[in-house]
Amino acid sequence: MKFSVWIYFAYILFSLPGYLSTVIALEKIGLEASAYFQVAWLLNGLLNILPYGVGTSMLMNDRGKVMPFLRYMKIIFIIWLFVIPTIIFLYLFSPLIFQFFGREFSLQSSSVLFWLNVSVIPLTIIAITNSLIQLKKKIHYQVFVSCLSAVIWISLIDPMISLYNLDGLAISILVSYTLTAILSLSILFLQSSREPSSLKTESDLP
């Protein structure tokens, strides 16, 4: 029970941008900005599903196994092979999709969507490493990383909005995810380096 509660707590902390961004856009920029952000966030959710889905599958299938660190890096790169072309496709064609709602809507939402989609690249690292951390029963690392991610994001909101308006809200999410991904990967590597079997390639495992 204790382990599950801390996982839930870490998830809530890490999900703060999704819960609060629309409200922040409404409060600091205006009603229209909130609508632009909400539509972009909903479309971005289609990409966010992929790394979380793969991470959940790893938890279900790999529980109790000693998995090589390199395998998880391969999984991350495979996800990127799908995510990065999708980001490029949406960058090129999302203005046309949003054009049905009007020119201003197209300009604002497509720009926000681009930054949110780019944030899926570091989010992939976070989702996969969090799954491995859970497999290793090192949930306190996940809680620490989630807390730090929330603090970074909250501290970036005002300066980023001041500099880039609505785009700044999406950029603050990208920056917080990027810093969190670097920290998550560092923790994962350090943990794996203490367990030599997890650094082996799959062919080296019995």
Notes on the protein architecture:
The protein is mainly alpha-helical and 206 residues long. The chain has one domain. The chain has helices spanning 2-14, 16-28, 31-61, 69-98, 103-118, 120-135, 139-164, 166-193. Helix 4 (69-98) packs antiparallel against helix 5 (103-118).
Q: Which percent bin holds the helix content?
A: over 70%
Straight-line distance between termini: 33 Å
Order of helices and strands: HHHHHHHH
Proportion of residues in extended strands = under 5%
- Domain tally: 1
Overall pLDDT metric: 79
Work out the number of β strands: 0
Rg of Cα set: 18 Å
* Helix count from the secondary structure assignment: 8
State the low-pLDDT regions, or none: 198-206
Structural class based on helices, strands and sheet pairing: mainly alpha
Largest pleated sheet: none
Q: Assembly state here?
A: single chain
Give the overall shape: globular
List keywords for this structure.
single chain, 206 residues, mainly alpha, 0% strand, globular, disordered C terminus
Characterize this entry briefly.
The C terminus is likely disordered. The protein is an all-alpha fold.
SSE order and pairing:
Blueprint: H1 2-14, H2 16-28, H3 31-61, H4 69-98, H5 103-118, H6 120-135, H7 139-164, H8 166-193
